[in-house]
# Entry
Amino acid sequence: MPRAIDQALQLIRENRPESTDRALALLQSTVYSFSMKVCGHRQDAEDTMQDVLLKSIPYLAKFDSPQALTVWLYKVARNQCVSSHRGKKFSRAKNLSLDELMPDSIELRQLLLRETPGPEDTLLNSESAEQLKQAIMAVPMQYRLVLVLHDMEDLSTKDVAQIMDLRAGTVRVRLHRARLSLRRELTRLPKGGGKVTFTLHASVEEPHPPACRRCFVALSDFMDGVIDNSVRDEMDRHLHDCEPCQVLLASLKGAVAQCHSYRPDYDSDRAAELRRDLLPKYQQAVTAPGKI
# Structure
């Protein structure tokens, strides 16, 4: 759970103007960051931030737990992002199959032969951050939302399920496919403007061994430690002996590590200007409920 929301709720309970301003600043930053990761456009992110905070004002003082505020805030932000004008072109439903996300033998050879640092070894500079943003935006919306909430906003599977109105098992399935899609997109993106050095194929020259396929299906659960002990032990043994699966796991971990390190730029002056309009509305909501 984002620490900023817990801090914001504590500040709101102090019931002082300066504390309320700091609380709104924390919530602004949280909603803006989430919206940028999902929508990819500054204007959409700023509009979402403003709309979500305006909707939250009558309710902020009524929340008695950070978890409840977290779920409510992200659910409202999610709905706003999905309905945003620019976001609509990304919102077409597209199902991702594991077969299309499983790397073929050509890509596996490239991964095995790669000498340059993998994503996990690279700090995000402006160029790599832009590449990550492109890769995230290429992930279909229903998968992207789960990826952002879980791997970029550090929410639990349970919280993501509540925000998305999904079962926890469905969240885990979408998360794995979102990570695989992101990993594929990051691998496809050229470095430094050069040409892509290999092509992914829908079919492969050689079928993947059954043990590799079983490993591939469970990689995210294995990474997150939410896997049965018997399956984990089987995967440990397989990974010990299978170099292609070792490299694929490292590549997937690297993609997730980039997600964790991504921080969209935030215009603090513009945010302060917006808060100057929000603070009186919040104070009015507290003193005269229902009259905003």
Observations:
- The chain has two domains: 3-91+267-287, 98-261.
- Residues 17-39 form the longest helix (23 residues).
- The two ends are 30 Å apart (CA to CA).
- Confidence is low (pLDDT under 50) at residues 192-205.
